[in-house]
């Protein structure tokens, strides 16, 4: 009997070592096979709780971000053999798996039964609060941090608390945490810098940046990104030159993607082209997939669809995200038929995901391909195993509405398994205005006002519709509602690159002189993918 117990204990130690190895990579497939073998061989049932075999299985599933199996194993472990690390591991798994509410519920349960918390527990807790934007619960967590003394000896927990406040827009509280920290790391300064740029102003962010005792690539990238997004291309280039040549730092694929994303949002294609050249110099033509995807997205959204196609064509290894970026770029340029042709090639390389079909339905909508859109929507679940999401329904309603099939669009909304949101109903309302369906438009607007009573766009749209059909009294009544409530419509804003800077003007203003010519971003040309030629 003693020999059998020793054998089981030795085998359990061996399995723990194998499970830890699978968790370090992490390799879910190997881990699941080890777990299954431990169950079928009886090892999991025969080993004592103090062998901590189940605890190791829990850490494996958590490392692989599989919260479902992690929770099942967690519940099988006796409470007496679950320590703070096990509870925190499951909390972190929930947060990474996009289930922050479960993280908070687990933290509350943990505190109610008296399980002690450590700094990593609080880090997971604050990350969950930040994702949910739950500032009240985050404040309670910070009180807990202070009472336990972590504010004096835990830089990680303080950084997480400061990040939580910053993401909730509570700059006074974030600065208070920063000021009360006895020691600050580069991460502490970077968190504050990011928050100040986002919630205060670029000038304040620059002051924080200049005060930083140590500036890493992330801090430089955030500052340069701030200048790009605010249209200060000259200052951005100056800082980029200083970062690369004066301080000897370099752009890795993460910083490159961040800067390219900023170029996409600001429309700064000049900076985007420079980053493209720099990435080719760093990585060669076969660059990192994430960087190539960001380049395709940047060029396409800045009007350079031909340049986007060239980047796509040069990549030999393309994942689903890159395909989606290329298809979306063609879709927004009205190349719906090209998108459908490319999709046939895509399914031979990668499996399409839910984003792919959002792009396909958008392409069909903007190109008037109603029948093809119907086929994609009907095949979503039965052929591709993808359950239609809110985005898919919104795209389908937009497709049918643009084509004038308003009754069919309304039928789809009524058959939705979830409550329609602003985008679904707003799309139908826009189609009602285009096709002058007054009764349906009023009915949709009433539903929208119940969901989003503060949105003024619906009143304006419907007012314009009545004005266009010769009913000024009805139009004035909708505008009168806005005046009575003291709501004003926010004017639109446009921007244009001129002289290395971004000039912005609000609707109704003339802030810049007329520009005679704007440099061409990208032309229309034939671009070949494999053996197929597409007119891009």
UniProtKB/TrEMBL annotation:
PPR repeats: 83-117, 154-188, 288-322, 353-388
Taxonomic superkingdom: Eukaryota
Gene Ontology biological-process annotations: RNA modification
Pfam families attached to this UniProt entry: E_motif (PF20431), PPR (PF01535), PPR_2 (PF13041)
InterPro entries xref list: E_motif, PPR_At4g14850-like_plant, PPR_rpt, TPR-like_helical_dom_sf
Coiled coil: none
Keyword field contains Repeat: yes
Keywords, alphabetical: Repeat
GO molecular function, one term: RNA binding
PANTHER family in alphabetical order: PENTATRICOPEPTIDE REPEAT-CONTAINING PROTEIN, PENTATRICOPEPTIDE REPEAT-CONTAINING PROTEIN ELI1, CHLOROPLASTIC-LIKE ISOFORM X2
Name listed for the protein in its UniProt record: Pentatricopeptide repeat-containing protein At5g15340, mitochondrial
UniProt organism field: Coffea arabica (Arabian coffee)
